[in-house]
Amino acid sequence: MTAVAEQTGAWMELFTNQLPAPAWLQPLRDAAFARFVELGFPNTHNEEWRFTNVAPIARTTFAAGRQGVPETKFAKGPVQLVFANGHLLTRPESLPAGLHVGGFADDPAAIAQHLGKHASFAENAFVALNTAMIEDGALVRVASGAVIAEPIEIFYLTTGSAQPIAVHPRALIVVGADAHCTVVERYQGAGDGVYFNNAVTEIIAGDRSVVDHYKIQQETANAFHISTLQVSIGRSATFASHSISLGGALVRNDANATLSAGSDAALNGLYIVNGTQHVDNHTMIDHTMPHGTSHEIYKGILDGKAHAVFNGKIIVRKDAQKTDSKQTNKNLVLSDDAVVDTKPELQIFADDVRCTHGATIGQLDAEALFYLQSRGIGKREARSLLTYAFAQDVVDRIKVQSLRDSLERILFEKFHEHAE
Amino acid sequence: MALLEIKDLHAKVGDREILKGINLTVNAGEVHAIMGPNGSGKSTLAQVLAGRELYVVTGGSVTYLGKDLLEMSPEDRAREGIFLAFQYPVEIPGVSNMYFLKAALNTIRKHHGIDELDAMDFLNLVRDKMQIMKMDQTLLNRPVNTGFSGGEKKRNEIFQMAVLEPKLAVLDETDSGLDIDALRVVSGGVNAMRSPERAMIVVTHYQRLLNEIVPDFVHVLAEGRIVKSGGKELALELEAEGYEALGAYDEPEAVGRV
């Protein structure tokens, strides 16, 4: 057997043991699995995966996620979907007008129209694997013109145990023209065992819609988390993504947005890693039409022997004149052994555009530290305060108050650990 | 017992020796002005007293309230009542002035076994002090010194001093970058803090600040040593005749700041 076949062979059993798919889904699953087998897991010779070695995932044999009530505690919200180990556990009891939140079985026609049409599995083995393994998923539909004030929360709870499990969360979020909504996806882990979350979210933001997306990743220290967010932004629509990556042993997030004429996209991120954590954020902003604006700020805080990767691709196609795009990646390194690889990747085919990018890797400001100490604030507290301050501008962009509060609490505790 | 006793203090930054044997005794209630040309070591002395690690003390001793000051961390010095008003206050984006100052005050109170203040008590405490410094209350909600004008930064330093109520305040070129009106406000804030329990060391290049904050003693620092000491009239003498009359010149390699 070839190396690829060895890796993908174990998945064949999981693939064939799935629940039978409805007629419209089976061809998609089959095509995706075939592509996954062809591609195999990427290695570090693949430019897109140069700094992220997924061998620990490739060589682990995973079982399917079992159904059951998770150990994890989470705050209940009014508009909330909860998946436990990949299985739909709870759904909202009532919904505001214009909003549907549920599973894939709720509306096969709507699903079939969009599912897999945005997140391509042609070149990405993990998207292919996710697509091949679709059984159920989160469906969010917002009717044209509906303004949904309450954040729509999707919880993915995964519990690691002795037998490693793999879960392939899938979400499809379809927002009609002129609609407004906020979607929060939270990945939360429990248990000591190894597990693998391989997530794909597709968002279709209709013309002139306003969509805010939050992803809070708090997997356990033994978890693998690979995700793709694929967003198609309509004409004059405004989309913002906020990706907060805190947990996981090996994490790779791809956030990709395709803009139309006059679209506005913001991709923001915060990653905080310690120990031997590895986090890789790849973003791609594709300006296809004129007058699009995009702004991106990713900030990272690294301690221990952690490794962070940022790769920000911006494509400005020939027709995308008057594009205005700005990318920033800033890293705060608190230890001598942490490593950052950061790379902007601009491909500009139009001539009347403005694109700026910048990346920094630095340490805590010694002068600021002394200033705080000179006012009586202890060194540890001062370090923690400055670390927190570094993250502040990303946190400030979070518009959901409850989310910002909970994140502030998490960060506050985390930076006290880091300041040790 | 003297509040502060500096004996034969030597300090260097990198390979450059800047303080070459400073002797100075400061008692509670006194205001000492330290004057001198650029590069004479004025700011270094201020930073050494506050505990900046960048400056390495190579000899001598500093006794504060009977304790070895040089053994103390910067935060412990602050908790024991030493305050440095910085020549160049640092901008700290992401930390609000209010959070910062409340944390500082509560740390110091805790150190002295006094109850910590909650947000409301803190606001009541700072309101009057902001008025004295003619500071807008919105400055409390802004990040520390971030986007402040030069004058706002200096006023913020003295405002912090007023809130933290130190026993020994070291004012490093608090007059630099201030116009005459701002100078009056800042000096007014400093003068309001004068008390028999509190001492101040006012570091300045120019005499004009000493018209507003009238010192009890004036010392001239040149090439890392105090070359002349006297009463407040010494400052006027310097104003009239310049440092060069004392044989004190600008240090050509002066770093002045770090």
Description:
The complex is a heterodimer of chains A (420) and B (258). Chain A has 420 residues and is of the alpha/beta class. Chain A has 2 domains: 3-260, no CATH class; 367-420, no CATH class. Chain A has helices at residues 3-16, 26-39, 55-58, 108-114, 125-132, 366-373, 379-396, 401-418, and strands spanning 63-64, 80-84, 87-90, 99-103, 138-142, 152-159, 165-167, 170-175, 180-190, 195-205, 210-218, 223-233, 238-245, 250-259, 264-273, 278-287, 293-302, 307-316, 324-333, 339-348, 354-362. In chain A, the strands form 2 sheets. In chain A, strands 1, 4, 5, 7, 8, 10, 12, 14, 16, 18 and 20 form an 11-stranded mixed β-sheet that branches. In chain A, β2 and β3 form a beta hairpin. The mean pLDDT of chain A is 93. With 258 residues, chain B is α/β, with parallel strands linked by helices. Chain B has one domain (4-246): P-loop containing nucleotide triphosphate hydrolases (Rossmann fold, 3-Layer(aba) Sandwich). In chain B, 35% of the residues lie in helices and 28% in strands. In chain B, strands 6-9-10-3-11-12 form a 6-stranded mixed β-sheet, sandwiched between helices. In chain B, β1 and β2 form a beta hairpin. The radius of gyration of chain B is 18 Å and the shape is globular. In chain B, 43% of the residues are buried. The A-B interface holds A 365-368, 370-379, 381-382, 385-386, 388-393 and B 50-54, 73-75, 77-79, 83-84, 86, 89-95, 100-101, 103-105, 107-108, 111, 143-144, 160, 164.
